[in-house]
Amino acid sequence: MTFADYLTNNYENLIELSIEHLQLVLIAMLVATAVGIPLGVLAHRSDVVRPAILSVTSFFLTIPSLALFAIFIPVFGLGSPPAVVALTLYALLPIVANTVAGLNSVDPAVVKASRGMGLGSWGRLWQVELRLAWPVIVTGLRVSTQVVVGIAAIAVFVGGPGLGNEIFRGIRSLGTPGAENLVYGGTIAIVVIALTFDGLFVLVRRFTTSRGIR
Amino acid sequence: MTATDSATSSTGATPREVMIELDELTKTFPGQSRPAVDRLSLSVHRGEIVVFVGPSGCGKTTSMELVNRLIEPTSGRIILEGEDVTTSNPDELRRRIGYVIQETGLLPHRTIADNIAMVPKLVGWKKARINDRVDELLGMVGMDPAGYRDRYPKELSGGQRQRVGVARAMAADPQLMLMDEPFGAIDPITRERLQNEFLRLQAQIQKTIIFVTHDIDEAIKMGDRIAVLRDQSHIAQYDTPENILTKPADDYVSDFIGSGASLKRLNLSRIRDVEMATDAPTGSITDSAEDLGRKLAASDWSAVLLLDEQRRPARWVNAQDLRRDNFDGARMGLEARAVVEPHATLADALNELVISNGGCAIVSDANGAYVGVVDLETIMAAIRVMRDEHTRFYLAAKSHSQVDL
Predict the structure, then answer these.
(1) Which are the contacts of A165, defined by CB distance < 8 A and separation ≥ 6?
(2) What is the pLDDT of residues B375-393, one digit of tens each?
(3) Residues β-bridged to residue B373
(4) Residues in chain A within 8 Å Cβ distance of B99
C-alpha cells in the first residue's frame, strides 16, 4: 500500500485525530497562558518570588516528558486530564520567561513618565508595560505552542487523544506492510499543525502590535 | 508680562502668591544613613520658573521627584496652592502637575495625539474636548496638527519628541510643571531653539515651573530664580540670575558659576530689551537693481537685505552685486544667515554674529518676518550698560561702608 492509498483511505481518521490533537494543545495553551502571563508579571514585579517562579517553571522542562505524563496518572487517572496537565506545565516556562524578559525590556523612562503623569500601577501594567512587552510575550507563546504540539503526541501513553495514537499504532505494527505509513501520516499531520500555528502567531504578532513599536 | 519682567518683579517688594512650598523636605533612602535631600525648604511663586542647579549627585533630581512624590519624602511637607498634599493620593497629585523628563518617555506604541491626550483622558475629559486640546497644543509647540497627530514617536526627531513631551505635560493645563533636564539630551543648536521657544510659550501661559539642570548657563537663561544646590540639596543661594552672577553668596556659588561670569550675563539680556538697528536698507528679492541701488545709496550701510514674499530675510547684496549684469535678487549676494528671535539672549546673538556673513544678526518675529538687526556695536553697548550698573552697585556699596565708618 502506497502512502497515497493510505491517505485516501485514512484521511477522515487523520482529520479526526488532528482535531483531538488541536483540542489538547489549545486547552493546554489557554491554561498555560492564563497562568503563565500573571506569573511572569508577578515575577517581574517582585524580587522575592522571581527566583522561585523561574526555577519551578524551568524544573518542569527538565523532567523527561514521558515521566511527567505518567506522574499525573495516580491523581487524574488515564485519558485527557493527565495529558492536559503535563502539557500545561511544559508550556509554562517559555511563557513566563518571555513575559519577564518582555517586561524587563520596557524602557524605564517610559514607565517613569507614565507614573509621573498619574497613571496608577495597574494602568501602567495594562496600558504601557504589557503593550510594550507584547511582541516578546507572543514569541513566548509561539515557542510554547511548538513544544506542546510535538510533545502532545506522547499523550497516547497515558491513554490520551490525538495524533500520537496513529504514530503509536504504526510503531506497534512495524514490520507489517504499510505500518510506516501510519507513522508518517501522524508525523506529517503534527508538522502541518505546528507550521499552521507558527504562521498564525506571526500574523497575531503583526496585527496586535502597535505600528509604533514594529 | 514677559519672562524677564517676572524675574525682576519676583525680587520686588510686593510679595507674590506662593504656588508651592516645600517645608523641611527630607529623603533618606533605605539602607543609607545620610539623607539624600536634607531639610529642603523653599517656596515658588505663581508664574515663575525656578531652576534647581547643581553638580551631579547633589540631589536636585531627587528634590524634584519629591515634589510629585515619585519619591516619597521621609519627612517634611509639600504644600501645593495652600493645600498639604504630602499624604494625598499620589496619582491624583501627579495629574495636577505637568512632568517632562530628559528621555521624554513618550509611549512608543501610541500616536502623538494619544500621548498628549494621556492626562486629559485620565481626568475624564470628553473626546471632543481632548481632540481640540491636542490640536491646540501641537500648534503651540510649533507642530502642524494635521501632519503629526497620527504619527508615532519613533517617526519624530529628538527635538520634536521633546516638544511633544512638553505639550503632553501641559495637556490638562496644570498650574505647576516639573521639568527634569528637558533639553539635556538634544544637540546644542536645537536645544537653544527649544529653550527660546519655551520661553516664548511661557510668556503666554505663565505656568509655575520647577526646572532641573546641571548647566549653569541654561539655569541663567531659563530661570526667574535659581536655587544653587550643594550636597544633600542644601541651598547655597536662592536668588535671581542677576544676583547670583553679581553677588554670589559664597565660594561654592562663584566656583559653580565658573569663569566668565560677566560673559554669562549676556544670557540675561534679551534682544528685545536692547536697541536694535532698524535702519538697515531692505528690499524684496523681486526688486530691480536700480531700486535697490537707490535704497543702498540713501543709507549708510554697505549692503541691502532682501526679503522674500513672507518678509523673511533671504539674502544680502552689496553695490558690487547690484552692478552685475542680469541681476537676480534670489541668487546673488550672500545668504542671509544668523537669524534670531527677539526672545533669544545676547549670548545667542553674539554666537550667531560670529557665523554670520553680514556682520550682524538678523532679528525676525515668530513668523520669521524681518524686524531689525543686531550688530556687535549693539552688544557692546549692552555690555557697557551692564558694566556701568555693576560699577554703580560697587560704588554704592563702598560709599555705604564709608558712612558706616
Answers:
(1) A17, A156, A186
(2) 888 887 777 777 666 556 5
(3) B277, B362
(4) 113, 116-117
Alpha-carbon Rg for chain A in angstroms: 20
The alpha carbon of residue A108 is apart from the nearest alpha carbon of chain B, in Å, by 8
Directed axis angle between helix A130-151 and helix A80-104, to 10°?
A: 150
Given a cut of 70, whether residue B12 has pLDDT beyond it is no
Burial A57-86 (b: 16+ CB within 10 A, else e): beeebeeebeebbebbeeebeeebbbbbbb
Chain B residues lying within 8 Å of A209, measured CB to CB: 109
Give pLDDT < 70 ranges for chain A.
Answer: none
pLDDT of B46 over the 50 cut = yes
Closest CA to B40 of B51, B29, B26, B59: B26
Angle (deg, nearest 10), helices A80-104 and A3-45: 50
A123 interaction partners in chain B (CB closer than 8 Å): 122
Q: Are strands B360-364 and B208-213 parallel, antiparallel or unpaired?
A: unpaired
- Contact B107/A112, CB-based, under 8 Å? no
User: Mind giving me the DSSP string for B234-253?
Assistant: EEEEEE-HHHHHHS-SSHHH
Whole-prediction pTM? 0.78
First to last CA, chain B: 42
Burial category of A24 from C-beta neighbours within 10 Å (exposed 0-12, middle 13-18, buried 19 and up): buried
* Main-chain phi, psi angles of B187, to 5 degrees: -60, 150
Q: Take residue B168 and report the three cell numbers written for it.
A: 503632553
**Cβ-based contacts under 8 A for chains A and B:** 77
Pairing of strands B49-53, B208-213: parallel
Model ipTM? 0.87
Average of per-residue pLDDT across B148-155: 96
Cα–Cα distance for residue pair A117/B334, rounded to 1 Å: 48
Q: Which residues contact A209 (CB under 8 A, 6 or more apart)?
A: A134, A135, A138, B109
The C-alpha atoms of residue B329 and residue B334 are separated, in whole angstroms, by 10
- B171-189 per-position pLDDT tens digit: 999 999 999 999 998 888 8
The backbone region for B22, taken as left when phi is positive above 0, alpha when psi lies in -120 to 50, beta otherwise, is beta
pLDDT band per the 50, 70, 90 thresholds, residue B13:
very low
**What is residue B288's DSSP assignment?**
-
The minimal CB distance from B95 to the residues A110, A118, A132 is found for A118
